[in-house]
Amino acid sequence: MEVECLALKDLTSPRKKSFPLELEEEEDGGQSEQKENICTDRRRSTPLKSAESPVPPFLIIRKGSTPDLAHITPIKHTVLAEPWTPTANLKMLISAASPDIRDREMKKVLFRPIENEKEKPASPEAAVEDAEVEDTCQFEAAEEEDDADKKPSRKQKSLGLLCQKFLALYPDYPPQHTPIWISLDEVATSLGVERRRIYDIVNVLESLMIVGRIAKNSYTWYGRQQLEATLEDLQRRGRQQGYHLQMELSTEAREAGQGCEDDGVEGDAGNAGANRKDKSLRIMSQKFVMLFLVSKTQTVTLDTAAKILIEESQDSSSHSKYKTKVRRLYDIANVLTSLGLIKKVHVREERGRKPAFKWLGPVEFQNSGNAVTQPGVTQPITREDIINLKMSRHASFNIAPTSVGVQRQVSSAPSTPRREPTGLLNQPVDYSIKTSSSNAVHRLNFENITEIRPTAAQQTPACSSTLPPSSTHRTLLAPSPHPEHLFTNSASPHCLAYLPSLSQPSVVMLYRTPEQPEVQRSSGSEPEEGRKRRREEGEEEEEEEVSKKKGTSGLEECDKARERAEVSSRTSPDRPAGLSREQALNDISYGSSNAPAQPSHYLYVPNNAGLNGFNFLLSASQSPAGLTLPPSSVPTLPIPYILVPSSALPHHHHYPLVASGLQQQGSDPHNKLSFSLPAVMSNAHFMVGTAPFGLAAASDVGRSPAPSPSTPEQSRMYGSAAGASRSPSGSWQTVSVNTPEPLTPHTPKETTPSASKAFFQTPGTLGSVVSAVPAARKRGSAQRRLDVGHPPPTC
DNA sequence: ACTTCCCGCCAATCT
DNA sequence: AGATTGGCGGGAAGT
């Protein structure tokens, strides 16, 4: 088959982004329904739709908007402050192209595959399903095409999809030292959704330390750097709190029918103390994850989770509470699914099948490896135990969450983001980077900046430290055999790279042409994310076997292992199996070992406007001019895509890129953009037109051991980014490489299976988007206060 | 009919 | 006081 596109499918979403005005107009907006789209307002407001006069409007807009933004996002301001930057140019150029068309086309063509992947299981395999899928696709396509006509369809607005889009904006493994700022406002705007939805996503991401709150409207993106450590920590906490026991009991006991009492009773008491935060999605998310981590089967039914959570939350157990809890769990599950951490399955129980989720993430952590996986197995559980557990749990309950809460509070202070004592926050905000060039700085200034260089040199051996053998490479420049190093977004099938200088959060996507079926299949090149929903149905069966209730220890282990293996092999879950994952990555990023020669394509997507305006940079090694891509893979659309012949990408050199699609504008002559993709990450520069942009490279490896202040455990996981990666085939090189290893020396902990990649950019910073519209907040004004009080929690 | 979960009201919090 | 967060649950889309 031909090329598989990656994953950004989601990006496609119809909404528009912020930008400029010009671009967007009609389409999705068309849907009346969508209240969410903020853009709408904007659009209307914006007089100019026409793409033509790109520049001026652009600028103007930005400026204008800036002020508004100012109050909103402090951070941003700073960034924004800078007037114009090369980025702007870029944007302009890009935007110049007719956005609408571009977008659509892009979506249709490029993304479609992604979408498909996403939704369905890997393409090849799922022949059967394909039929279905296609339908779906077509369906979707149809919808998208005529924006006007169709409405978004509920699925398209799903939290999971939205989350994927969100995730696609940032690198899984950002360079440690260069924090990526996220402005919720901007993100919401760019994704075309109302803020409320972003909160949902961010809250769960925060629970996993994928993002950290800095201040109002400001978050820092940590990516998956700390994920493993966080999970480990959660696992530990889960055990401490006796969740494993509960899991077992829950089923039985509850079924027995008593869960209520405790709940009710405690609830009241607990309530008093508990505030809003205790019910927080964030906390719920952590608990939910804990359940998986301590579960033998790693499968948790919604029912069980809801019940357990209800208990804890001290809510009275009313049916309504249950329902509410379940709703929330779905929300959480959606984002976890997008992260590739869980997947939906059904468990069969005596009475029938129940919806459940299966953990796809890591379960065993090196450090703790110890007891880890066998949580509940041995102990016979007694009612007393449970009680004790509960008690302890409650007591501690707050603790866990608290930490978060506290953290937040601290952070919530209007503080200047950079300043905060890192120690308090867990966030690794390491401004004190030893590197000569502080990334932080770059980061902040992204737009203007020209180059960020990761100092490769920096990597101090000392720091780097311990790593698992596998992750030996921390080499910056050297082509690493590991695909991981590429800036791939592990979660997603595609690799993403962020080009910092680009105005908007730009994403570079790599997708390889999958020649080999096997690759796809095995590697699961498909994004896990993508597959989720669709596959649920299909795959579920497998999972079903899992009976939650009992697991024999030994067996279960095997089972688990088996399952995991399966999963990894079949779906290419990124994170779950280290190896598989790596492979997957490899496949993805390089043609994959399997597919040796295949060049991968680059997609450069400047999402300035929120993903609507997609700009792609595709590198097709095959196609000389880059123009000829496999038909299937690349549409001849007027879409603005930039093709970069892989051959063209020598390491360390700049190469000309061919941009197509831009022409659409007609006015724009610039078909060529020159990019310099740095072989070396550190030095990578992105050039657009004349202006060079610096790529933020993931830069070297970790320089400082623990950038993050956070708990030691957490800090361990950094992958450093190293710069250049190149495909084995040598087809191209790009950017970032990371060292896979965890930097922290001290704990030899887990190997980070994935280390990763590096590019990134701060979307937030970019702000461009933002600028465009403050718009969306209807709520503020609208906020209506009805007198209606709500009833106190019933009991 | 049941499952999933979007949407946005509105209260708690923060500025 | 106004803005930001985010709990919550109605009710509709999807199955």
What does this structure look like?
Residues 719-731 have a biased composition (Low complexity). Residues 16-52, 402-426, 452-485, 514-580, 700-760, 773-795 are annotated as: Disordered. It is found in: Nucleus. With 795 residues, the protein is α+β, with helices and mostly antiparallel strands. The chain has a domain at 159-254 and 277-359. Helix content is 42%, strand content 11%. Strand 2 (211-215) and strand 3 (218-221) form a beta hairpin. It starts with 25 loop residues before the first helix and ends in a 13-residue tail after the last helix. The structure holds a DNA duplex (15 and 15 nucleotides).
Strand portion, in percent? 5-15%
Indicate the mean pLDDT: 45
| Individual helix count | 29
List low-pLDDT spans: 1-149, 254-273, 368-384, 389-795
Helix content: 40-55%
Rounded Rg:
24 Å
Biggest sheet architecture: 4 strands, mixed
Report, as a whole number of angstroms, the end-to-end distance. 59 Å
Based on Cα principal axes, name the global outline.
globular
User: Widest sheet: strand order?
Assistant: 10-11-12-13
Family: Belongs to the E2F/DP family.
InterPro entries: E2F, E2F_WHTH_DNA-bd_dom, WH-like_DNA-bd_sf, WH_DNA-bd_sf
Pfam families: WHD_E2F_TDP (PF02319)
Keywords: Activator, Cell cycle, DNA-binding, Nucleus, Repressor, Transcription, Transcription regulation
